[in-house]
Each structure stands twice: as C-alpha cells, then as structure tokens.
Amino acid sequence: MEATGTDEVEKIKSKFMSAWHNMKYSWVLKTKTYFSRNSPVFLLGKCYHFKTDESGELSTGGSNFDKINAEISGNVEEFRKDFISRIWLTYREEFPQIKGSALTTDCGWGCTLRTGQMLLAQGLMLHFLGRAWVWPDALDIDNSDSESWTAHTVKKLTASFEASLTAEREPKILSNHHRGTLKRNCDDNEMRNEVYHRKIISWFGDSPLAAFGLHRLIEYGKKSGKIAGDWYGPAVVAHILRKAVEEARDPELQGVTVYVAQDCTVYSSDVIDRQCSFMDSGKADTKAVIILVPVRLGGERTNTDYLEFVKGILSLEYCVGIIGGKPKQSYYFAGFQDDSLIYMDPHYCQSFVDVSIKDFPLESFHCPSPKKMSFKKMDPSCTIGFYCRTVQDFEKASEEITKV
C-alpha cells in the first residue's frame, strides 16, 4: 500500500510539473517569428530568398504573405512547407510509465533527448525520403494568432475522427485501401512516401517498443550513469543514439549506422569501415552513416568566432542539424538567417499519441512555425550531425567540411 501511495504522489507531482512547464513554455507557439526580406534563409542545406523591392520584415505567421509579390510569396511558402515537413518531437505526458520510475512525462528534463530524436529523424528522412520530400499536408497546419496551436490541433483531430467514422460507413473496398494513404488519390510513390513518413515517426513513439522512443533511449543512457528525470548533455545523447541504432531490429534500419567522433576528430577509416560492414550474411552493400560530432564552441560562453563555422555547417546538404540550445535548455538548430539560428523547440508538452494505431494523427509531430535565436545566446556544448548515403558522399562531405 505504501508503494502504491508513493506512485500516486509521483503521478500527481508529474501532472503538476507538466502543467507548469506547459504554462512556462507554451508561449513559444503563439508568437510570430520575423524574417528579413533582404537576407537569404538557410534550412538544412537549402537556401531560400525572400528579397523584394520593399523594405522591412515579413512574418511566417501567414498574415502578410499577400503583401509581397507572387514570386517571393511562393518562396516563403516553399520555406514554410520545408520547415513544417521536418519531424518535431516535444515533451509528452500520459505515456506508458518509464521502467524503474513513476514518470509518465518528460517535462522539464527530456529536452536534449527530444532534440537528439529530431536530429536522428532528419537523418532517417534523408535516408528513406530524400531531401526534396515535403509533407503534402504541411501548409494545412494553421498558424494564425486568433487561436492557439493546441486549439487548432483539437479541431484537426475532431475532423480526423469524424472522417474515420465516415470511412467506416463506406464500402469495405474503399476503407481497405493502403495503410499509409490519407483520403486522397495518390500514385505509388506518394503512397510509399506516406508509409515511410508514418513509419519514421512511429520509431520515435513514446512506448517501450519504439526503436528510438524515449523509453529505449533512457535504457541505453543507463550505461552513461543517467536515469529518467536526469538532464542529458548533447555528447551523452550522441552516444545513446549510436547505441539505439546499433540495437534496432527493424530490417528497414539495417542499412543505417551511426558514428560518433572522438575528441572532435572524425577518423575517415573508421567511418568507411562502418559503412562497408556486412548488412547481412553474404551481402556486402555499404551502409549509410549518420556522423555525430560532439563539440564545444568556447569556454563558459560560445565564442562568436565560431559563427561563420556554424553557418557554414548548416549550409551543407549533408547536415542534419545541431543538438544545441541555451544553457540547460536544448533546441534543435536547423538553419539560420544573418546572425540568428533557426530552431525547433521541444519545450511544449503535448499529449501521448499511440503511433501503433492505423492512421494516427500526424499534426502534433510537425512544428507550425520556426523560431529564431541570436547566435550569441547559444550554449557552447553541442552535437553536430551529418548524413552520408555512400562512401563517395562521405568523401565529398569531408572535403566540404574541411573548407568550412
């Protein structure tokens, strides 16, 4: 009885902290981010230009897109579509209890694990979908100021539920279509992409069975002396991700490996050895590699001399982002404009989504709006990620990184 009482106290405490952190951080989804019209915007190796003859700034909120010409508006729309298509992983609550604890939320402590998940997810998206892929429904996520994003999500989920009820009343031959399709006619390639889109997200589900879910990552973190509720640094998360990919049993993941640099040094022979390792017995195809480089960009504060280096890295097509942030507050850096970094913020507590069900809702895994932060505020400790599909890609990436 005593143990049960302790569990109840822990659950109540956990719910209180979820509410507190949601109140503390939820403003980030209700404020606009402004981008200069006169400077290029880089997002994971892609460059977008918003330049017009008019001076001033434009917002990603969508309210003043019609004030600029069609060419620029189209480019802003392409940027938004590209950004929203990246997988966003945030605090969650009410998920299955983490083994060895009473925790059913990662609010307040899991942000670096979440940013690590986002970086790995981007690597897997490049591997299975390619950099040109965008989510067809990306621009359906509303980002207006008139309602909070959560309220919009509720409406979308309600609409999705109503649609599912309608589908159940349709003839069975229609409702039994392909498991990845979403109420629209699409060709085989679109169907394949939708299947992989959902599959990648499902690998990061908040359950003990998910290959890269929080529960698994915490288990792998125990070897580094970490437990659920601890704060994880970018370097520790890099090694946890390597272990998670090594231990993944899904046949789809056997073609990917992770290499973690030692003392900021990437040993080419070690990377190539990993890529050329046997995928299965009797098969010697090379593996794609995700390279993680834990670095420190200064002493107590980030040295501004590293600004051009970070910008150069985020400009490369091989870059899958940076696990970084402010002191004790991790962000996933995916791009930049001028001297500001563009990021996705995991500090937003959302409800658990069961990714094992057919056609689970996707909206909460895609961020409706980018955020910006001055490079000067960046914590010096971070982990930089790259993806190379082949040995030739690795050799080309090495040349480009050397130039940076």
UniProtKB/TrEMBL annotation:
<dbReference type="Pfam" id="PF03416">
    <property type="entry name" value="Peptidase_C54"/>
</dbReference>
<keyword id="KW-0963">Cytoplasm</keyword>
<dbReference type="GO" id="GO:0019786">
    <property type="term" value="F:protein-phosphatidylethanolamide deconjugating activity"/>
</dbReference>
<dbReference type="GO" id="GO:0016485">
    <property type="term" value="P:protein processing"/>
</dbReference>
<dbReference type="GO" id="GO:0000045">
    <property type="term" value="P:autophagosome assembly"/>
</dbReference>
<dbReference type="InterPro" id="IPR046792">
    <property type="entry name" value="Peptidase_C54_cat"/>
</dbReference>
<dbReference type="GO" id="GO:0005737">
    <property type="term" value="C:cytoplasm"/>
</dbReference>
<protein>
    <recommendedName>
        <fullName>Cysteine protease</fullName>
        <ecNumber>3.4.22.-</ecNumber>
    </recommendedName>
</protein>
<dbReference type="InterPro" id="IPR005078">
    <property type="entry name" value="Peptidase_C54"/>
</dbReference>
<keyword id="KW-0653">Protein transport</keyword>
<feature type="domain" description="Peptidase C54 catalytic">
    <location>
        <begin position="77"/>
        <end position="398"/>
    </location>
</feature>
<keyword id="KW-0378">Hydrolase</keyword>
<keyword id="KW-0072">Autophagy</keyword>
<keyword id="KW-0645">Protease</keyword>
<dbReference type="GO" id="GO:0000423">
    <property type="term" value="P:mitophagy"/>
</dbReference>
<dbReference type="GO" id="GO:0034727">
    <property type="term" value="P:piecemeal microautophagy of the nucleus"/>
</dbReference>
<dbReference type="InterPro" id="IPR038765">
    <property type="entry name" value="Papain-like_cys_pep_sf"/>
</dbReference>
<dbReference type="GO" id="GO:0004197">
    <property type="term" value="F:cysteine-type endopeptidase activity"/>
</dbReference>
<keyword id="KW-0788">Thiol protease</keyword>
<dbReference type="GO" id="GO:0035973">
    <property type="term" value="P:aggrephagy"/>
</dbReference>
<dbReference type="GO" id="GO:0015031">
    <property type="term" value="P:protein transport"/>
</dbReference>
<comment type="similarity">
    <text>Belongs to the peptidase C54 family.</text>
</comment>
<keyword id="KW-0813">Transport</keyword>
<comment type="function">
    <text>Cysteine protease that plays a key role in autophagy by mediating both proteolytic activation and delipidation of ATG8 family proteins.</text>
</comment>
